[in-house]
Amino acid sequence: MGWYLSGYRLEERKDLPQHTVFLTPVPPCSTSPQQLTRLFSLPLTPSSPTVPVENVRLVDRVSCKKAALGTLYLTATHVIFVENSPDTRKETWILHSQISTIEKQATTATGCPLLIRCKNFQIVQLVIPQERDCHDVYISLMRLARPVKYEELYCFSFNPKLDKEEREQGWLLIDLSEEYERMGLPDNYWQLSDVNRDYRVCDSYPTDLYVPKSATAHIIVGSSKFRSRRRFPALSYYCKESHASICRSSQPLSGFSARCLEDEQMLQAIRKANPGSDFIYVVDTRPKLNAMANRAAGKGYENEDNYSNIKFQFIGIENIHVMRNSLQKMLEGKGYENEDNYSNIKFQFIGIENIHVMRNSLQKMLEVCELKSPSMSDFLWGLENSGWLRHIKAIMDAGIFIAKAVSEEGASVLVHCSDGWDRTAQVCSVASLLLDPYYRTVKGFMVLIEKDWIAFGHKFNHRYGNLDGDPKEISPVIDQFIECVWQLTELFPCAFEFNERFLIHIQHHVYSCQFGNFLCNSQKERRELKIQERTYSLWSHLWKNRADYLNPLFRADHSQMQGSLHLPTAPCNFTYKFWSGMYNRFEKGLHPRQSVTDYLMAVKEESQQLEEELEALQGRLEKIQEVHFNGTKVKGKQSEPSKPSGFSTSDNSTANTPQDYSGNMKSFPSRSPSQGDEDSALILTQDNLKSSDPDLSVNSDQESGVEDLSCRSPSGGEHAPSEDSGKDRDSDEAVFLTA
């Protein structure tokens, strides 16, 4: 039995551990430090120190700057460090759900260090004066960072102050039925099946699935019984021009000799749904050695002899366990399709490693990133030794192969790994991104993740540690996909509507649990929890702030946006870069003062302002010319009209035009009145960037999680119009009157 603080009242909660106190978070900038202190001055446990913890030091791990002295607060959702400096009070906010590991280090002369590593690659080192305080904070954070129930996650208490209707509209922004309709479905070859209504065939699949028209319910159910986790072949992407498709499934339970007539018929139905090709590819993303080991275990891959007109392709993306449990798999009976049973099928093994290899590879790379002042050779050796970029290349190679098969050969492809929810999701989404320019837009990318990751049952809870569970199930699967997309944006800078910040924010919210999109392991679990009725959608938040995520180089009419992106099947390793913007984004000393993207966005914004001003001036000029034209006609009818001093009829052609104001350029400023100094629109710091992430709160630094508490202009830094703006308007009117 524990306690929960709701507003300013303690409430008894029987569902919480004994002697636990939870405190509600307080929005920054709306609450003074004194109010924070009064609100949080409650013991976490009977023997713990009071919160806040005073005289805590925040160590700058990159520079040699003196550690910042401040106060540490714990809330129900955040760890908050507030600097004591009266000049520049800053806050560092860390979501409990973002905490990956907490390490209590050996006590030193200055205190007890506490090292917090986050899932968004932020590292925070605190030095707490008293060892007992450090221990209590450590124990509290260990519990807060590992909730045991979904209801303890941030999204169930997060309230962006939207009403019920706005929340519902946010969830309706992405509609997969509209996406399949955009693909041209249903048509003469594909139909929407209700075979998985109420999840009665496969509980990790969505209810709405497209299958070949010739595939009866009997064939689908029979195929599902022959596939791991009952994940039968279903449509992921469809090219309506060529009728080529990308389908996905899990591995067959074939072993060395087992076969399933319904599964063979299912693959033939996929082949016949594409009249432009007489075969299909079966792409197995696993290394062939792993697939063969699974076949020895009675699982494996399709037998080519049983599947006619099918080409098999093994890509080689490692799975999450690799060969660790090969003996156990020998007893389970899995593997890959037997070539003897599948005619007209080409098999392809790709070779992408499993989730355990990927997790270890990321850990090795992050260790390299944590090195203090490494030499270039040490860094490059560590990066190469981690194998991270090799894994990224393997995923990209798989996507490139599938995209070429669809776009150049006009062939359909079936993709699977072991269970069909990790490497299969990576490869299908990369291939779709290469094939379809719609997925390279802001909204299209949201649709792609919703379709291939969320709807098709990627295990978000297990892979990203939303709840306390088996750490061996955690792996950076969607992180790798997001990096693949970033690598493509580097290769094709004009092809993507969104920028790097968009990708980083999506990765951040996969782990933040602030929105309900990335919870649970399947659509069925999300519906049982009533996620849409109880939480908010990330997509509506990103869409509302999409101006922050636009790529200034994007052009809808550019050749890179016309059809497929073409890459060599095996591009050289040098084309793949280390993504410092993701993995070192909190290390401010490693980045330039202003990124190229921010600079280009500032230039684009200034250009738009100048174009708007030019359009307004042209409108004024037309009105001036119209007034003088009418005035000239009236004067022409009068005999001996009086002329104002200093005015000549010979000047009519230039009066009240830009040439007429050569001596008074204030009437036509060279930049928008909202701009200040000449370079203000071009030289931006991180503090000037708009913070559109509600988790980072008002005015908080989006990249570092640090907020400046000093007073700022309520206008967001914009300058008031110049004093001359009103005078210029009056002077123009005076000229009109004299005319």
TrEMBL record:
Residue stretches in coiled coil: 593-627
Subcellular location: Cytoplasm; Endomembrane system
SMART domains recorded: PTPc_motif
Active-site residues, record numbering mapped to chain: C417 (phosphocysteine intermediate)
GO cellular component term, pick one: endomembrane system
Binding site for substrate: N354, I355, C417, S418, D419, G420, W421, D422, R423
Residue ranges annotated for the Tyrosine specific protein phosphatases domain, each copy included: 386-430
PROSITE patterns named in the record: PPASE_MYOTUBULARIN, TYR_PHOSPHATASE_1, TYR_PHOSPHATASE_2
A single GO molecular function term of this UniProt record: phosphatidylinositol-3,5-bisphosphate phosphatase activity
Domain annotation Myotubularin phosphatase: ranges: 170-583
A biological process from GO: phosphatidylinositol dephosphorylation
Bias (Polar residues) ranges: 639-675
Compositional bias ranges of the Basic and acidic residues kind: 720-732
Residue segments, region Disordered: 629-739
Membrane protein topology class: Peripheral membrane protein
Entry keywords, A to Z: Coiled coil, Cytoplasm, Hydrolase, Lipid metabolism
Protein family (similarity comment): Belongs to the protein-tyrosine phosphatase family. Non-receptor class myotubularin subfamily.
Protein name: Myotubularin-related protein 7
